[in-house]
Design a protein that fits this description.
344 residues; alpha+beta; 3 domains; two-stranded antiparallel ribbon; 23% strand
Length: 344
Amino acid sequence: MSTITFNCQQCGQSLEAPDDMVGESVDCPSCNSTLIVENPTIKPPSPKKHETQVDTTSASKNQNSETNVKQGALISGLVCFGLGVLLMFISLSTVKLYAPLFLAAFVLSIIAMAQKRVAGGVILLVLTILVPIVLFIAIPSFKIAKFSYEEAKSAAKEHAQTQKGGDEAKKEVEIEIPEPCFGINLGMKASELESRADGKRVVYNKDRVPKDEIGVPFDIWTCEGSLSDNESVKKTDIFIYNDRVFMIVVSFIDTSEFNYSALKDSLGSKYNYVHTSYTDEALYDLTFTDAVDDSRMRINLNKKGAYMGSGEGDLTITYTHIALEESLENQISKAKSSKIYDDL
């Protein structure tokens, strides 16, 4: 039997004991402390490597889980906030849906701050409070502004179309007035007048066109009777400017007061009466205008003749295209002004 030598763990006294007592308790003769007999040649087992790794991995997993829990509150809050904003943009009437989402985002922002996610929690808290209020005011205002813009755009488009149509209609009216002027329309082209006068005795009345230094840029045609074969018409004088009929003077065979009154009543029932005037030659003149547009046409009923001696001494009706007459007068005025300037 062999012996082993070991030291007392309390006082360091060197001791000997049979090797079969390894692991048994003995008393130290020096300090009387109880100790266990150990074989110094056998080292105690060290902790296994995989157990250390398991402990380290478990600690890391616990730390990651805690981090994920803290981030989860912030992320969930942001998701609730985003869904709430989306629902507000879709419709403000879905308040029962987006209000709980904003409330949840508000609570989660507080939880995130409690979990030491202070910056993210504060930002989420501010957004949850301010953004719903701003959107609740801004969205209706934006929709109202958009609606007003669309209405204004639509109204402008409609006005443009109406104005375009009105301008086209006005242009058409200014060119030709489809009135029953005894077979002739004011604004009619001279070529069309010739085709309507086919078979009628229509002459170019050169002697009636004034002769002066400037020259009056219009022609006078005379038709015996009327182009409409009205038997009460004695003759028709047609004034043409810029290849358009701008004035028609109809002279009647019957110059009696009775016929004058009948024509007066007929015109008064169809057109707007304007005024009565007397000229230097004591010509009794009644003026009417078109009932649709006063600026289109002027009608004069006269007992003793009309413009430039037409129907002198006769009962006449004169139809005048106002726009063409004004254009003619402007051209004559410019020509006179130019001649005066040249004479200077």
